[in-house]
Each structure stands twice: as C-alpha cells, then as structure tokens.
Amino acid sequence: MTSPTHNASDKAPLDAVRAGELLDELAQQPTLVRLNQASAKLGEIKSVLGRVPVRLGCVSSFTLDPLKSVLELQAARAGMALESYIAPFGQFERVLIDPAAGLAGFRPDAVLVAVRLADVCPQLYSDFNGLKDGEAFALLDGWFDRLAVALQTFRQRSNAYLLIQNDEQPVNPALGIADAVSPGSQSEFIRTANRRLVDLAGTIPNTFVLDYDALVARVGRENWCDDRTRLYARIPVASRHYWRWAGFYVRHLRPLFGLTKKVIVLDADHTLWGGVVGDVGMHGIQLGHDFPGNAFIEFQQRILELHRRGVLLAIASKNEPGSVEQVLASHEEMVLKPNHFASMRVNWNPKPQSLQEIAEELNLGLDSFVFMDDSPVECDLMRKSLPQVLTVHLPRDPAGYPAIVDGLDCFDQWTISNEDRRRGDMYRAESERRQLKSAAIDMQSFYRQLDMTMVVSINQPAHVARASQMTNRTNQFNMHTRRCSEDDIRRLSTDGTHEVVTVALADKFGENGIIGMAVVGTGADAWTVRQFLMSCRVLGRAVETTLLRWIALRARAAGAKRLLAEFVPTGKNKPFSGFFADCGLSRAQATGDIQIWELGLERFEETLPDWIKVVVQAD
Amino acid sequence: MDNATRFRSIVSAILQIPEEEVTNDLTSERVDTWDSLNHINLIGALEQEFGLTLATENLEKSQSIPVLKSLLSQHGVHV
C-alpha cells in the first residue's frame, strides 16, 4: 500500500532505532488500525531493518491477502526484507504445478503452503460421523496423493524451501467428550494426518512442516477463528490474531536465512534474582521456593533450557566485580552456574560497552545478540546505542518473566546438532585458550602449545546436518555466505564431482566439534572451492590456512593444475577479506562483486605446518 | 479523543487517506482503497476500537460514511 502519510509527526524519516520502536509498540497492541498505520511505512521499515532479502511465495486454500503486509512487517522485525507473493486462493495445485503461473515468475526463495484439510476435504471436519469405515483415510490418501504430485512437480523446477502447515484439531471434536477416548475418533484422525504429513514432507527435499495446530492451541482454539470472516470472505483467522499468525510463519523462515540469534546477555539484579546483591548481600536476594524467588528460579530454568539447545549465555551487570560471580558460584538455589556463562562483565561501565566487549570476546556479530534487563533505562540505552541487538525488557512483575522467555522466537533451528548441545562448553574452553595466548611468547609457540589435531572428513553422511547448519549460521569467516540446505549438501557429497569437507578440531583443552567446512568441485584441470567457512571461535589459530593448503595439496595430488575460489564481500565477512591473499592466491578477475582468486598448483611449494596434526577420514 | 475524531482516524488509517477526506459524501465507489478486503478490515477496526460486534451482513461492501455512522449509532456509539 502506498499513500501519502497523514500528519507532520509521521513525516520524520525513520532510522533503525525508530523503526524498531514502532514495531515494538505494534507488537504490544497489534490492532488493525496500528497494523495499517505501520503498513503505510512498510517501505521505509523494510529498508532500515531488512538485512536479508527473502522472496516468499504463498499458496493457500483460503484468503491469505490480509496477511501480506503483516507478514512483511513481522519479517522486517526479524531482519528480513521480505517480498511476498500471494497466489490467488484455492488454485494452489495449479499454482505449484504450472510453470506459467505467477508463482514461478516470482522466483521465490521459499514457498508457504497454507492449505487447510477443512477446505480440501470438508467432510473430515463437518461430516466425520457420517463417514463409513475407511472412508476418512481414503479421503486423506486422495488428498496426500494430490499434494505429493504438486510438491514434487514444483520441486523439479525450483529449489525454493517448501513450508507446509499442518492441520488444526477441531474446536469441538465429532464425538464430544468421547472423542478423546474412542479409537478412530476425529481427533485421533487429525493427529495421524499430521504425522503422515511429516512423513510426506520427508520425501521431498528442503520441505518443512509447520506445527500450525500447536499455534492455534497456544492462542486458544475457540478464539482463533472468526466465523463471520471465514464464512463471508474465507478468512479463517480472527483479525486480532493477524500479528501473531504472521509471526508464526516468519519464525519458521528465520533459521533458513541465517537470522537465528546466538547469545543472551543477562542483567543480574532483578533479572536472575530479586533484590540488589550489593545492598542485601548474597543471602538477602530473592531466590527460592516461594514467590517471588520461585519466579526467578523458573526464569533461570527457561534460560538454561535455551542454553542446552545451543544458545550462549553472558552477563552484563552493574555491580562490584566479584559480587555476581559469588552468587553464581555459591548460592545454592541458583539454577545457572558459572560454567553456563561464556562471558561475564560485572563492572560500572555502560552496558552497550560491556555488550560490545562480549561480542568481541565471543567473536560474534552484534545482530546475534539478545539483551535482557528489567531496567527501562538500560533497555532504552541499549536500543538506541546498539539497535542491531534485540533488547527484551522484563516486566515489573517477575511472575511474567518465564513467559517472556517462552515468547522469544529468535533462537529456533530446524535441526539441533551435537555441537549445539555442547556449544557452551566449547566457548568456555576458548576463553581458557585466550589466556594461554596472552601468556605465549609468539604465535608459533602458542600454536604448538595448543597441541591441535584437525580431523578432516570427506563426504561424511553423518556431518550433513552440521555442514548445512554452518552455511546458515556463519557470517564472518565465509567466502560468500551462500546458504546450503541439508539436501544441497547431500547432493554435493554424492554427485561425484564435489567433495564436501568437514573439519573437526581438538586441542589440549578439549574437543571443538566440527568448526569448518568446504565444498570443492573436483574438475580435471582445476579444482574450484565453492564453499569455505570457519567458525569464528577458532580463527587466529591458522586452522583456516591449514585447511586451504590441505585442499590445494589434495588437488595437486589428483592432477589438477589450478585451484580457483570466489570471494564475495557481504559487509559482514570482513574477516575473510585478506585470507586468499595471505594464502598466496592471486586475484584473477572480478565480475561485479564476485572476485575470482587463483592458485597455480604446479609451482605450489607450501607444506602443512608441523604444529597441527591432520587426520583424514575418507568416506 | 472524542468518538467523531476517533472514527475519522480509524477510517483514515484503514483506507490510507488523509483524515480531512473522511466526510459524509465519501462512499466506497469514490475511493480506490475501499475495496472488499479493506472494507472487512474497516469493519474489524471499528469493532476493535469501539468494542463492538457487528453482524456478518455488514461485511458486504457498497458502503458510505453515513451508513457506517448509522451502524455505529445503532450500537450506541455516536460519531
């Protein structure tokens, strides 16, 4: 929607801070009036907040049009500049199958398939008791066959991610109170249908199922739908839920486009416990089995669950150094212990400064951070100083804290790897390594003291999920940040013309897990590096150089004359910019932003460093 | 904000037109943005802002500002 804005206050240009505030206000009260007012500024909001361009095609069995600008607003809030295309409703099969349909011309990065079983097989919802033995499943089979054909046909033409929503349980199941306990009941049937949808999605590459039923249940089945708009205009969802509904779709897109947050930085007083430890002492703080202490315990438990999923934790607290550390180490009710935190700043510095230091220490971009504090002043300062950080203001009443954590939808990933579960340990070991580094005399002896072993695997099926995840999460030491799905990795590692190389690293402080990956095209004359990336937590230890040399030596041994590689500056991958030159490659040519680098292998004389042990695990 | 001002700002926000243009001679035929989808949004917005529930038949397009005003007054909201 484009139209002139109405009054003078609307005319001030939006910056990232103001746009963020505007969306925060909208999230508090997402009424139709406010949604429309924000939509009038959609172009500006997108341009200041949308870092990652995403094209989303939507096909549906109902009217999805009212959600278009709401989707784009929610996407901007998540860092996406979303262009959406809503196909005419009800024609979803033709739209998916027909290469001449508008969807194909739109060239989507992802396609949302929002088809309700209630629309395609209405009897399953409105006439379930009238269906005879087997008829319900016959209807479902018929529908799944059609769906599978549509999705497979689409997949032959496009690599766009497919996101399919599952089906909601009826508000009032067909057998009333007996439904829950009767074999073959309607609610059991819908559960089975949803399970089979997951199976169907598993047969089509890059296809994901969205648990729409869980969304409806969270909000409340009775209130989700507005029968008036459903019956009159085929809009099945009440308008007061549009914001939440659109947020649900965006949440599932985030991890596919590298927009998952990685770190929570927590305040201490009034956040992890009640009271000010500096005033009341360690034994005076509120933390225990009765309110308000139990609210803080639940809050910590929620944070710990996120940590176990791979989210890093840090503290930025204004306190006397040592006081917070003492509570963490010695207060017996604390759920979060010192070993759960990758970094701590307990001092009197402004918190944006502390957060920047933490970001440098962990080697992660500021847009990977979430900051939580109960103080509106600290939150305001953080939003204004570092708008890239997602600032979460905790309410006055600690009983509301656990729900705030539950409502954070920015930490999702489609798969959770072993590296995720152990990430916290690995970052802690890293801070010990840094201490060694500052004590070491020169870099060579530092490397030597680390006693590193690099395990290189080629086309390892067990590493597919992690390899794909690294392309989605790694932004800094990455040659071009082109994302790869698990299916892409699987294809590359089995097509006979590529090698997918994954690198695990161990040292005297422990295992780092898989920290680097590369994809190399193995041509006869030239090998081409198509992916090359390394987790920032191991940079500065010459692992990246060793890996590139290892690839060059392997290419030469296979008879290749040249090694080629691309570098595409992205604004976030500065750490990569000097890498190829440092490794002795020369710049061959540039096409637009794409730089081509080359290494002649016939005169290549480098060897692998003697202070890092390289073990190869071929498939 | 009195009801009349509130009414104008709601219509202005949904139809994306300046508040001054929300006058009694405004009809759905005369403004492009007053299409069937936006009309449903408009009814929804009036419900949300004034705390009412309107009957489904009001989702039918072909409307004017006076019609909306009389609909609201039937529900005790005088704009």
- Order of strands across the main sheet of chain A: 16-17-15-14-13-12-11-18
Low-pLDDT regions of chain B:
none
| SSE order of chain B, one letter for each helix or strand | HHH
Q: End-to-end distance of chain B, in Å? A: 12 Å
How many runs of DSSP E, i.e. beta strands of chain B?
A: 0
Report on the structure:
The complex is a heterodimer of chains A (619) and B (79). Chain A is 41% helix and 20% strand. Chain A has 26 helices and 18 strands. In chain A, helix 10 links the parallel strand 4 and strand 5. The longest helix of chain B has 15 residues. In chain B, helix 1 packs antiparallel against helix 2. Chain B contains 3 helices and no strands. At the A-B interface, helix 2 and helix 13 of A face helix 1 and helix 2 of B.
Topology:
The complex is a heterodimer of chains A (619) and B (79).
Chain A: H1 16-28, H2 32-39, H3 42-49, E1 52-60, H4 68-77, E2 80-86, H5 92-97, H6 102-106, E3 110-114, H7 117-120, H8 123-126, H9 135-157, E4 161-165, H10 186-202, E5 207-210, H11 212-219, H12 221-224, H13 227-233, H14 242-253, E6 263-266, H15 277-280, H16 293-308, E7 312-318, H17 323-330, E8 341-347, H18 351-362, E9 369-373, H19 376-385, E10 390-393, H20 401-406, H21 418-439, H22 443-450, E11 452-458, H23 464-473, H24 486-494, E12 498-507, E13 510-522, E14 526-534, H25 543-557, E15 562-567, H26 579-582, E16 586-591, E17 594-600, E18 612-617
Parallel strand pairs in A: 1-2, 1-3, 3-4, 4-5, 6-7, 6-9, 7-8, 9-10, 11-18, 14-15
Antiparallel strand pairs in A: 11-12, 12-13, 13-14, 15-17, 16-17
Chain B: H1 3-15, H2 36-50, H3 65-74
Quickly list its features:
heterodimer; A: 619 residues; alpha/beta; Rossmann fold; Aminopeptidase; 3 domains; 8-stranded mixed β-sheet; 5-stranded parallel β-sheet; 26 helices; 20% strand; globular; disordered N terminus; B: 79 residues; mainly alpha; Non-ribosomal Peptide Synthetase Peptidyl Carrier Protein, Chain A; 3 helices; 48% helix
